[in-house]
Amino acid sequence: MRAAIGLAAVAVLGLAVLALRPDPAPPRQSSGTVTATSLFLDGPYSARFAGELTALKQGLFAGPITFRPQPNDANFVESVAREHAIGVTSGQKFLLAAWRGVPVTAFAASFLDTSVAIFTLESSGLRRPADLVGKRVGYRRASEGDVIFDAMMAQLGLPRSQITKVPDRDSFEALRAREVDAILAPIDEQPDSSAAGSARLNVIKPQEYGIHVPGLVYFASNDLIHDRPSVIADVLQGLIRGWQFAYTDHARSVPVLVGFDPGKLKSERVRFELQQQRSLVLPTGGRIADYDESRWRTLRDILIFAKLGEEGVPLAQTVNYQFLRDVYRRSPDLAAPGAWNGEN
C-alpha cells in the first residue's frame, strides 16, 4: 500500500514538473519580409545612371532596391563596404580602394570604357594628341583624366615635359576663355554644340589611341557577395534590362529619367548625354555590362605608372567575371540583337 502511495506521489510530482517546464520554442517562422538592397550612386541623378534609374522605375529588379546618390563622398567605396551594399563608381576609384584593403569586389561594368576625353576648340586646329605638345591642358590632379592622359601620351611616345598642365582649369568655361588650349573632361559634361552660342569642339578620345580601361563599374561588399550571391545576380540582370530600356526608346526613357529630379534634369540635355555615352555602354561587338581582363590589367598598369598605388590585392581577388557569365547564360535574350534596337 505504502509503495503504491509512493509511486502515485512520484507520478504527481513528475506531472507538476512537466507543467512548470516551459514549452519548447516553436520553429522560427519567416516574417515574409525581404531586406532591401542599397545601391549607392557615385554622383547625383543623371543620364550616366540611366540603366539604374530606369530599372528601378520600370520594376526590372527582382527584389527591393533603395537608391542612395552620394555626389560628394570622398570615401565612396568605403561607404559601400561599410553598408554591405552595391555601388557604381569609376574603375580607378574602385581599384585604388581595393588595393587599400577595402573588402569589395567588382562584378560588372556600367561604362565599358573611360568617359574621359580631351576637348579643344575646333578653331584651334588641335585634333590629335601630337598637336598638344607645347600647349596648355587644364586638368584636376590625380583625377581619372589626369592619369589616362599621361598614360596615352607616354604610350604614343610624346614628350609630356613639353606640355603645360594647368590644375583646376578643366572647365569648358576655361577652354572658351582660352585660359587653356585643351581640357580633360567626361564626354557627358560637354555642352551641346548645336545650342545657340555654343563653341564647336574637337574631341580626342583615349580609346582611339589604344587606351582601354573600365569606365564606371558595379561592385559590392564582399560579405554581400558571399552571403547573398543571388541578390547580385538579380540586380545585374535588372541593370542590363534597364540599360536596354534606356536606349531602345528615348520617348519613354527620357521622361522616366527627368522624373527623378525635374528641377535639374531637362529632357533635351538628358537625351544629349545619352547619345554621348552610348558607345561606352555598348561598344561595337560588345555586351551590356561586360568587361574583360585586359582592360583591368591596363588600368592596373596605368595606376602603378602614375604612382598612385601598389597592387596590394591581386586582380583575381578584386574582379569577378562569373556573375556576368551566369546571367547571360541563364538569359541569352539579354545579348540577342533584338534586345538592343538602337536609339529612337
Give short descriptive properties of this protein.
five-stranded mixed sheet; alpha/beta; disordered N terminus; 10 strands; 344 residues; 40% helix
Structure overview:
38% of the residues are buried. The protein is globular, with a radius of gyration of 27 Å. The chain has 344 residues and is of the alpha/beta class. It has helices spanning 2-20, 50-57, 76-82, 91-99, 144-155, 172-176, 222-227, 229-248, 250-258, 267-281, 293-305, 315-318, 322-330, and strands at 37-41, 65-69, 86-90, 104-109, 116-121, 136-139, 164-167, 182-186, 201-204, 216-221. Helices cover 40% and strands 15% of the residues. The chain has a five-stranded mixed sheet, with helices on both faces. Strands 7-6-8-5-9 form a five-stranded mixed sheet.
Q: Count of DSSP E strands?
A: 10
Number of helices: 13
State the major sheet. 5 strands, mixed
SS-based structural class? alpha/beta
Into which percentage range does the β-strand content fall?
A: 5-15%
The Rg value, from CA coordinates, equals 27 Å
Helicity range of the residues?
25-40%
Tell me, what's the shape? globular
Q: Largest sheet, order of strands side by side? A: 2-1-3-10-4
Mean pLDDT: 88
In short:
The chain contains 13 helices and 10 strands.
Topology record:
Elements: H1 2-20, E1 37-41, H2 50-57, E2 65-69, H3 76-82, E3 86-90, H4 91-99, E4 104-109, E5 116-121, E6 136-139, H5 144-155, E7 164-167, H6 172-176, E8 182-186, E9 201-204, E10 216-221, H7 222-227, H8 229-248, H9 250-258, H10 267-281, H11 293-305, H12 315-318, H13 322-330
Parallel strand pairs: 1-2, 1-3, 6-7, 6-8
Antiparallel strand pairs: 3-10, 4-10, 5-8, 5-9
Helix pairs in contact: 2-8, 4-11, 8-9, 8-13
